[in-house]
Amino acid sequence: MSDQIVPTSVRYYERLTYAGMAVIFMNQVVNWDKAGAKHFSEAPLAYVVVQVAFLCVQIFWVWLVVRRRLNWARWVTLGAQFVIMFIIGCGFGMLVGKGRADGTVSELVFLILATSSYLLAACLLFTRDAIPWFVPQRVECGHADANTSNGSAPPPAHSF
Length: 160
Fold this sequence. Notes:
The chain is mostly helical and 160 residues long. It has one domain (8-129). 66% of the residues lie in helices and 0% in strands. It has five helices and no strands.
């Protein structure tokens, strides 16, 4: 499947999702002393394995949506973004209400950038040019229809 066949909004979904992953990586690098170093010092191998596994799952998910064109994965992507936003909002609301919001401004900025990137990317999967990309493709068979032998035309194929 060439990149030219993929609709523009689906290509932007892919790029924005990878950009969101890069923002999360930059957050971990910039704020290493806050969370990364603590978890890494407790279990270095487990920390690395979990981070790599999480990255691989995200890349696999983008592949399912963009290359395999799975409609259910597109809907799960959108739903997951709203669930993540709800969890983040409630979590910050509870922490600020209890006076325990100990995150830095840079962590908040990275979180907003990554969440915005992921949400915009998920919404791009529902634009006018992206919707036909997720319609199941029919496999055309090479044999003739039974009705063509008697001169009648085959029934029309419906796209939706």
